[in-house]
Design brief:
The strands form four sheets. Strands 4, 16, 17, 18, 19, 20, 21 and 22 form an eight-stranded mixed beta sheet that branches. α9 links the parallel β14 and β15 (283-288). The chain is built from eleven helices and 22 strands. Mean pLDDT is 94; it is low at 6-11. The chain is 29% helix and 25% strand. With 411 residues, the chain is of the alpha/beta class. It has helices at 28-35, 45-58, 75-81, 93-100, 118-127, 136-149, 186-195, 214-235, 261-278, 290-293, 325-328, and strands at residues 15-17, 20-23, 26-27, 40-43, 64-68, 87-90, 109-111, 130-133, 154-160, 170-171, 181-182, 199-204, 208-209, 241-243, 283-288, 297-309, 312-317, 341-343, 352-358, 367-375, 382-385, 407-410. Bound molecules: pyridoxal-5'-phosphate (PLP). Pyridoxal-5'-phosphate is lined by residues 68, 70-71, 89, 91, 112, 206, 209-210, 246, 287-291, 390.
Length: 411
């Protein structure tokens, strides 16, 4: 960890040279010249590789690691991920196309999400990927489309568990949810599957996202194994694949602590060994998006004006919420908090000042950092927002106010 970084950029492994941030050995200012005048996202292959390999060391060897493309679907990045993970989870036919363009085999690609249309399901069936069934109706539609195509489908059943992932930023299981099929509605669905000519691969149980508490993830994983085992036993169907979800969070805000993945790995080794006793053939999968790529990316924009209003200093930059909705606090946050921010070409300075960084949009929502202590910045300096490798570019309303587009690069 580098002491020069803002205190809450906890996990930043980017290097500094001459008081300037570097990415893959290239100083920020030079990278900006290479890319052009607009703001940009940059993702580091090295940091992604480091993250994947250190996680693999902590997880039991038999666990398969899937990348959830939704977190960052940049095609070049997904191509890279194809060389270091075991599979892809997609959430749309658009993402499926990006996944199929890589060398990943269709058998290791799955699709989840409510509301898959018949024509989309036909594409998934033809592609040969695993379809996570999200409702009893969807199962019937898949069967119908299979007979239309004269093909069989690989399906898994997504269960909405009765337990929920405690302390998750986004809960996606437990209680009334649009995702998956409620636990108590599963037995009749499995009965129908047994009578259909579909290739049943197993279960997908996803309880939530952005969790920083190892204990709650451990607890959810234990319950997930028990649930899958119970369902398999009652239905007499063999589980070829069990996707136990993910939900690993990354620290964004002051006070957030990195997730104790070593603890999760230890507990998972025990639950996995237990589960394997009755299900030795089952392939167990963890699917992660944000945790694999979120800390490997930054968003960079430049100061275009500086002014004081009623004693408050504003840095006005050429990027904003239209490029990075999450950093503006408008993507699911209840209370706005600052992402870790730095002046990329003045990382360390004796003199600092309190500033509010805003974008060029004519709305008070366009805030990238509010009342933050930073080295004194001038026009043309670089503002860097860390933890931007996931849910950045594609989660933002780029058309809003018709400002120039931003770029994405992978180094
Ligand atoms: C969103 C989502 C993910 C990825 O979540 P992260 O927080 O990025 O790890 C994985 N699986 C499913 C089913 C999802 O909906």
């Amino acid at each position: 960890m580098n002491k020069l970084f803002p205190k809450h950029a906890v996990n930043t492994d980017f290097l500094i040279k001459d008081n300037q941030l570097t990415i893959a050995g290239m100083p920020l200012s030079r990278l900006s010249q290479r890319i052009g005048p607009q703001p940009f996202y940059v993702y580091s292959r090295d940091l992604i590789n480091q993250r994947v390999s250190s996680l693999r060391q902590q997880l039991p060897e038999q666990i398969k690691l899937h990348y959830a493309i939704k977190a960052n679907p940049m095609p070049a990045l997904v191509q890279h991920m194809a060389t270091i993970v075991d599979g892809f989870d997609t959430a749309s036919v658009g993402e499926m196309k990006i996944a199929l363009d890589t060398r990943m085999s269709a058998t290791n690609i799955s699709i989840a999400g409510p509301g898959k249309r018949p024509e989309e399901l036909r594409q998934c069936i033809a592609a040969g990927i695993t379809i996570n069934i999200e409702s009893a109706n969807e199962l019937l539609t898949v069967e119908k489309q299979c007979s239309r195509l004269g093909l069989s489908a690989n399906i898994a059943v997504r269960i909405n568990p009765s337990f929920e992932l405690k302390t998750a930023g986004l809960k996606m299981g437990g209680g009334a949810k649009p995702f998956g099929i409620d636990e108590d509605q599963i037995p009749p669905v499995l009965n129908s599957i047994r009578e259909m000519e579909l290739n049943f691969s197993g279960f997908h149980i996803y309880s939530g996202s952005q969790n920083l508490k190892a204990e709650s993830i451990i607890e959810a994983q234990k319950q997930t194994f028990q649930l899958a085992e119970r369902m398999a036993k009652d239905s007499q169907l063999a589980i070829k694949k069990l996707n136990i979800g993910g939900g690993f969070g990354i620290p964004y805000f002051p006070g957030d602590k990195p997730l104790a993945t070593d603890k999760i790995g230890e507990s998972l080794a025990v639950s996995l060994a237990q589960f394997k006793k009755n299900n030795p053939q089952t392939e167990v999968i963890i699917e992660l998006g944000r945790y694999l790529v979120g800390e490997a990316g930054i968003y960079v924009c430049q100061v275009i004006d500086k002014k004081v209003s009623c004693g408050k200093t504003f840095l006005i930059v050429n990027g904003g919420l239209h490029h990075h909705l999450a950093a503006s606090g408008n993507f699911g946050q209840v209370i706005r908090k600052n992402y870790p921010v730095a002046i990329g070409n003045k990382l360390c300075a004796d003199k600092k000042e309190c500033v509010t960084i805003v974008g060029p949009l004519c709305t008070p929502l366009d805030i990238l950092a509010d009342n933050i202590e930073l080295p004194i910045a001038e026009i043309d300096d670089f503002v860097v927002i860390f933890q931007s490798g996931a849910y950045g570019y594609t989660s933002s309303p780029h058309q809003f106010l018709n400002q120039p587009e931003c770029q994405q690069v992978l180094l």
